Structure formats: C-alpha cells, structure tokens
UniProtKB/TrEMBL annotation:
EC number, UniProt record: 2.1.1.10
InterPro entries to which the protein is assigned, alphabetical: BHMT-like, HCY_dom, HCY_dom_sf, Hcy_S-methyltransferase
Cofactor(s) essential for the protein: Zn(2+)
Record keywords: Metal-binding, Methyltransferase, Transferase, Zinc
UniProt-recorded name of the protein: Homocysteine S-methyltransferase
Pfam family, one: S-methyl_trans
Enzyme class: transferase
Species of the source: Actinomyces marmotae
Region (Disordered): 1-24
Residues engaged in binding Zn(2+): 250, 315-316
Record-level GO BP terms: methionine biosynthetic process; methylation; S-methylmethionine cycle
Domain of life: Bacteria
Length: 343
C-alpha cells in the first residue's frame, strides 16, 4: 500500500476554536483541564428509535447514505441535552464494507467524509445559538474487529497483518482529516498494538491532531479484551504525546471504577469513561431488561469524576436523556440548536 497522504487541517475544523499555534493547550486538553466534559451517547440506539434500520453489517454507518438527516438530528439531540463533544458517525464506516454495500470507492470515501460534515454542521448550529460554549467534534475510529462485524471487537481475536487491515483504517482517517477534523476518538479498542498503530497513523496523516484512546475491557476492568493488562496500556498512553486522555468505553458500568483505579495509578493524564447503559441483554430471546435507576451508568458518574474521569458520556443503549442527567449532575446547562437541517 502506498504511504498515507498527509492532509492539511482546516482552521477550526474539529473544534469551535481556531487553529492551535503551539502557544496554548489544544482544545480538548484545555476543556478537560477546566472540569468534566460531557460526551454524547449512542448513535445506533437513536437511529433505531427514529425508524432507521441498523441491523446489518454497516450498523449505524449505513445511515450516512440512506438517512443523513436522521444522523444530524441525533447529533442535535445530544447537543440540546448538554453534550459538549460529538463523535462522528464513522465508528463502523470502513471503506471495504461501504464498497461491498454497492458504493464506488469515491462514493465510499465521500460517505465517510460526510460523517464529519454532518457533525461539524451540528456543532456550528449550536455555536450560533450559544457562542460562549465550546463544542468539539471527534472523528470516531473503531477497531478492525468492528469492521469484521463478528463480535471480535470484544475479544481482539484478529491479526493486524490481515490483508484489508490498513484499508479499514487509513482511508477513514484521511477522509475525516480532509474535512478538518483535528480530534480523534480511538475507541472500543480491544488490543493495545492496534491502538498504538492507529495513533501513529493519526500523527502521520493529521499532524498536530489530538486524540483520546479508550479501551474495551473485561468486567473486572483490569485487562483489555485480548488479555493485555490495562496498566500497560495506560503507561503507554501516559508516554504518548499524541494522546490527550485515556480510558474505557463500551464496558459494563461496574468495570469503570476498577479501570479508572488502574489507569490513575500509571498516568496523570485526564481519564475517559463512557460505558454502556447498564441494561441487560438476553441472547436466548434477543431482548433487553432495562437497568434499574441505581444500576444505570449515570448513577455512578460523580464517583468516576472523583476518580479522575474528565470526559464522561455513554456508549451502547444510552440516550440524550442520559446526557441531560450528566449535564445537570455537573452543573452544565443544556443548549438549544436550530431546526433540523436539510443535508
């Protein structure tokens, strides 16, 4: 494969601030230094609620092609609820998968790029309503296992030398960076070596960009899904200049405190926590039991903040209502945005 292209970053692209000139902390680092920052929540859950089907290989990414207005509406709903960081709907938007769905390569790259444009426009609408509020947009970079759509994002049971490994990751970073994204969420990572590889590619393709890395762990919160000690991952993140924050996501709420304890012992960087809702899935019936109020992830967020979490949000089966709970919890007002856009 040819070397990845280094792309210029548009000033103010991934954040409401201007370009970083090196004299001040970058936008995410600055925001995290000022107190807890609320991240958005699930995209697929909200698309399902709007009647947009996600039960297929591309999951929520197909909506970039079939229902972009619904994607925009989800972003808007999280901003209204009080989120200050949006993640692009690109977690499972991999070039090979999009092309298998019938798109040409230019169309597939365009679909990935559209995830950035949709989120950036939502942030701009919010900014027009409340110019005093910082809204950041992070390009979501899921693991190779998400592209495989076989559950291996929760095990890490795949090889980094797979023939299409780079084709999954590099075009997505290029497309997002090409739209001006300068903050990346390297998320739901079950393997340390893959997270390290992705962070290197971000640094090469989008020099100066920030990222956070969040790992997928077992229920004990002490090891990555592939068995790597979380302490090892945290120590790497602590020494990696391109990583602004590190934590866990797409885990059970009960795994968060142990994970934060491990990470807090090896890094002074801000920590990240955005677990699943706490709802219980029953594979035999393919149904869910909603978590009791004291078991829902929001019930534990204050404790996570005391343990060092500065970027706090939700993952699977979380909603804007949860985001509003978090915003009120930390004294962060909600924001109104304009009417649903035409995309």
């Amino acid at each position: 494969m040819e070397p990845a292209q280094t792309l210029p970053l548009s000033p103010g692209g991934g954040a409401v601030e201007g370009a970083d000139d090196g004299s001040a902390p970058a936008p995410l680092a600055r925001a995290l230094g000022e107190g807890p920052v609320i991240l958005d929540g699930a995209m697929g859950t909200e698309l399902d609620a709007r009647g947009v089907p996600t039960a297929q290989e591309l999951w929520s990414a197909l909506a970039l092609v079939t229902a972009p207005r619904a994607v925009a509406a989800v972003h808007d709903s999280y901003l209204r609820a009080g989120a200050r960081v949006l993640t692009t709907n690109s977690y499972q938007a991999a070039l090979p998968a999009l092309m298998r769905s019938g798109l040409s390569e230019p169309e597939a790259r365009g679909a990935i790029a559209s995830s950035a444009r949709i989120a950036l426009r939502a942030a701009a609408r919010s900014r027009r309503e409340r110019p005093d509020r910082v809204v950041l947009v992070a390009g979501s970079l899921g693991p190779y296992g998400a592209y495989l759509a076989d559950g291996s994002e929760y095990t890490g049971a795949y090889a980094l030398h797979a023939p299409d490994f780079e084709a999954v990751h590099v075009p997505r970073i290029e497309a997002l960076a090409g739209e001006g994204i300068r903050l990346f969420a390297v998320e739901t990572q079950p393997r340390l070596d893959e997270a390290q590889w992705i962070v290197r590619q971000v640094g090469r393709i989008a020099p100066g960009a920030e990222c956070w890395v969040s790992f997928q762990t077992g229920d004990d919160g002490e090891r990555l899904a592939d068995g790597t000690p979380l302490a090892e991952a945290g120590a790497w993140a602590d020494a990696e200049p391109g990583v602004a924050a590190v934590g866990v996501n797409c885990v059970a709420p009960g795994a968060v405190m142990p994970a934060l304890g491990v990470l807090g012992g090896v890094t002074a960087k801000p920590l990240v926590a955005y677990p699943n809702s706490g709802d219980i899935y029953h594979p035999s019936t393919k149904t869910w039991t909603a978590a009791a109020p004291d078991q829902r992830f929001t019930a534990h967020a204050r404790q996570w903040a005391r343990a060092g979490a500065r970027l706090i949000g939700g993952c699977c089966r979380t909603t804007p209502a949860d985001t509003a709970v978090l915003a009120r919890m930390f004294g962060l007002p909600t924001a109104a945005v304009g009417p649903e856009p035409r995309c």
